[in-house]
Amino acid sequence: MCGICGIVSLAASEDLRTSLEGMLFAVRHRGTVDGTWMNGNVGLAVRRLPIIDILHSSQPLFNEDRSLVLAGNGEIFNYEELTAELSARGHRFSTHGDLECILHLYEECGNQLWNRLRGQFAVALWDVRAASLILARDHMGIKPLFYCANSSCFLFGSEMKSILAHPRFKRELNCQAIADFLSLQFVPKPQTIYKHVFMLPPASTLVLKNGRTEIRRFWDIPITSDHASPAREEVAEETGRLLRTAVQRTLISDVPVGILLSGGLDSSGIAALAAEMTSAPLKTFAIVFREKTFDESDYSRLVARALGTEHHEVVLDAGMMLESLERVADSFDEPFCEGSAFPIYHLCGYVKDHVTVLLSGEGADEIFCGYETYTAQHLARYYRLLPGPVQKLFRYAARKLPVSDDKVSLDMKIRRFVDGVRWPPPKAHFWFRTSMNDTQKRAVLKREFVAGLERVATSELYEELFATLPSQDVLNKLMVTDCRLHLPDDLLLRADTMSMAHTVEVRVPYMDIDLVSYAFSIPSKRKIRGFSNKLPLRDALRSKIPERVRTRPKKGLNMPYQKWFKQRRWRDLLHDNLQKSTLEPLGVFEPEGVQAMLREHELGLHNHAHALWTMLNLVLWMRKYRS
């Protein structure tokens, strides 16, 4: 794990060393060891967190004649077999680390090498002879990589901080990103909150040569689920085998490894398999909420006892979250308020004193049909068979349900379902998880701001991607859509950013591409039946974890800000930041619309907690940006 950054300068007056040092200093939290390389108008820099071959794999790395230079972030889990293969062909390695194999594969395969790799990576490779830069990002987008191109230079970095630190970079807000953020609680990529800064898409390379850039995808999630269904037992066996291989790969390390254990199916499965592969007691880490309706620590303790792990807990309350708002915002460089970022930030702050690598369960829901949004779509086809008057009665009854501030409350789920079921699958899927709908956005945004947008309906992003997928399996298409949008731009970016803020590496076994590819060869009807989901994973983990955990429904890691907004300090924060005098200078919000939403929420007419939380975080970020 590292932070990387670099410059290809087109300006004769560029002080390359000073600029590069400033960019590297901006990501100093991502590692402990610096390395830089400069040649003419090109500079690469690395802040390395040593995990494999701790003493000898300093970066940047070079091939035998130093005609190739590599700065990389992440791990290549199959590096030993690749190194053996390349050594047999006469390549000479100078380290025992994992990233060096990329240089020698490039000598063999050129820019076609990336599908040989199994791992999580974001790398920059400078080809001295060709005078070209290649950026590459792993298949699922586990490791981030941002870039910016203008007339004077090309910049890149593991975080936007490096680009923002360059003296020639001019900060201009991207209004479309603001509007999309209000719907999603994150900025959908490749755009960012800044004009001219982009994120390289997953499974893609960017080649810079002679001042021109070209981006190409080298892999797509294969959807091959339109054929006959395999037997349930066969699916369970192969899922278990591939998951075991994935966990084994992610345990490769020369430093201590632990497990983020939520007490849910996904993380418990990883912990169970990892415990079988390690001789010493496994270290597990869990979050405990003081708000009992949001707390799941009973389940994580149950799993820890069953597996005999060395279990650690981090207790969180409203005050701790309030005090960390600014620190979390600083970590992301752009608005981001997906609720679980805050607990993970605090957890990794504790973890860093115990382990350097943390395995986590991100991605299982997206490949095995784990979210309630998929269940809703699965059930919607039966709901649509009901007579129109019956559906109308359901919608009326849903609006009469009392407002609750419980964790993902039943009233909210029912309202979202009966409203969204009228739309095509991708729009309904988006509607079920959006924090603000189009009507709400128009009510709280200034008319002139809305007039300048390319789109108000962020759901179009989902609909457009969904339409490009070839399968007739609607649920698998929704899962692939999430794997292309929600997963890399939200969950995986959150995991990387929050962990690296404390110099901890997160690894995600469910994102192993062999496991992912197999998961999408399984028809969705083998993944869900009625209200029971993730069937391949539940079957594969039979007898591995406690039955109460194996069969329990998903809860998710959510923050109880619905309850916290009733506390004085949080309520004051809301009112201070959503009042007219605060909003007017920003030039984005219509204060009357925001105030109306706040009144409805406080009177208990509607639960607008998600929308208010989203606007609060955006306002806090914009106020800091303006200052």
Describe this structure in words.
The protein has 3 domains: 2-217, Aminohydrolase, N-terminal nucleophile (Ntn) domain (Glutamine Phosphoribosylpyrophosphate, subunit 1, domain 1, 4-Layer Sandwich); 221-384 and 421-559, HUPs (Rossmann fold), CATH 3.40.50.620; 560-627, no CATH class. Helix 5 packs antiparallel against helix 28 (609-626) and helix 10 packs parallel to helix 20. 44% of the residues lie in helices and 15% in strands. It has a 6-stranded antiparallel beta sheet. The chain has a 6-stranded antiparallel beta sheet with strand order 4-5-6-7-11-12, with helices on one face. Strands 15-14-13-16-17 form a 5-stranded parallel beta sheet, sandwiched between helices. With 627 residues, it is of the alpha+beta class. The radius of gyration is 24 Å and the shape is globular. It contains 28 helices and 17 strands.
List the helices and strands and how they pair.
Elements: E1 2-9, H1 16-25, E2 33-39, E3 42-48, E4 61-62, E5 68-76, H2 79-88, H3 100-109, E6 119-127, E7 132-137, E8 146-149, E9 153-157, H4 160-164, H5 175-184, E10 197-199, E11 204-209, E12 212-217, H6 232-250, E13 257-260, H7 265-277, E14 283-289, H8 297-307, E15 310-316, H9 318-332, H10 341-351, E16 357-359, H11 364-368, H12 372-383, H13 388-399, H14 410-420, H15 425-433, H16 438-444, H17 447-451, H18 459-468, H19 474-484, H20 486-500, E17 505-507, H21 513-519, H22 535-540, H23 547-550, H24 561-564, H25 568-577, H26 580-583, H27 591-602, H28 609-626
Helix pairs in contact: 2-3, 5-28, 6-7, 6-21, 9-10, 10-20, 12-15, 13-14, 14-15, 15-18, 19-20
